Write the structure tokens for this entry.
Amino acid sequence: MADGKTTASARRPSGRRADAQRNIDKILDSGLKLYSSRPGVSVAEVAEAAGVGRVTLYGHFPSRTELAKALMERAFEETNAAWEAVDTDGPAEDALERILRQQWYLMERNRNLRDNIIGDVSPQWLRSRHDPILERIEALIIRGQDEGAFRTDLPLSWLITALYSLVHAAADEITAGHLTPEQAPDTLVASLRSLYRP
Amino acid sequence: MADGKTTASARRPSGRRADAQRNIDKILDSGLKLYSSRPGVSVAEVAEAAGVGRVTLYGHFPSRTELAKALMERAFEETNAAWEAVDTDGPAEDALERILRQQWYLMERNRNLRDNIIGDVSPQWLRSRHDPILERIEALIIRGQDEGAFRTDLPLSWLITALYSLVHAAADEITAGHLTPEQAPDTLVASLRSLYRP
DNA sequence: TCGAACTCGTACATCAATGTTCGAGTTAAG
DNA sequence: CTTAACTCGAACATTGATGTACGAGTTCGA
């Protein structure tokens, strides 16, 4: 027993037991679904949706705020991965269209998540994670302006905001039943083409 | 004393005392300001902002829901009055521009009010009050389409939603400090012209 | 199979919001 | 001036959410 300190925690210093990890995943999945669908979600709801005891949830996420952060962190990672996967070569106008068609629902989901999580995390924290994503879009728009494909008579930040805004609007229209999920990307692309062209 | 029943309430059956009416106004004013600025406003906050006791507030508005309804009702009336005041003659494109320049801040404020009040009143109630306003915009857009000034390749409801969406975006940009209140209407009008033209 | 890691329900303390009651004071209106 | 309407603070009951503590049971991992 001289070297009996080879406990599990010593052997897997940064690891978790498989069932714990499974529960963490379930919690994050359910949390994302709930938080991105409506405001005012409670910790208890997330736990129930995940099929997990409330105490278990608190065991992994010490507070509501920590849970919220984990959800946002995960969403940002997903977005970054999506950007890596998309082809941004060629004319900026075409690249933007590809990005929209592939990611508009992701943009929308994360925007809702962000809206419904405000108040749980500090604005600074939120900004620090969100800015890198904005920069990617910004760079693409600037490229389009250099190519002469995008207008330059309106502020750059406005073009970005308008883009997000219309993505959000498209999602609302689907929810309201005025637009089908198939029509949405076409409508969005057509609208943004009109809006972005010089 | 045969006719001694000439009490105040009998004499002013539908009227209120002047100080009561004054307080009601203060409550609605403060409530509008708070509700349209952020979510999660409590009744206590509204009372305090109005400089009125919480009990007094409950005396006039039996519940949080009733207060919310009164706020929305008032906002709708204001919007209707604004529509009556605006000149909708001439080409639809110009009329829309005039409306935007005169009412965009009102549209924005009421949209926030609506967003932050969801959950306090039923969706049906909200719809029933909001629809008449949408119809006015709808009629104007259809007129523009008949004149050949507005595009017809996108759903009508989408054009309306996009309009509201961009108004909201413009307000966000002002809040974020990316747009001045003077620039906002021009940016908005320019964007919607691009978006609406065939 | 053994022990540590993990889960679970129950129970508890805390906090904030809603809505009500009471009684004493103030104010408008006739 | 008289009275009814109104206001106010303080106190109370209720509800729902957050976070913690405990102890008994289950499951993973070596």
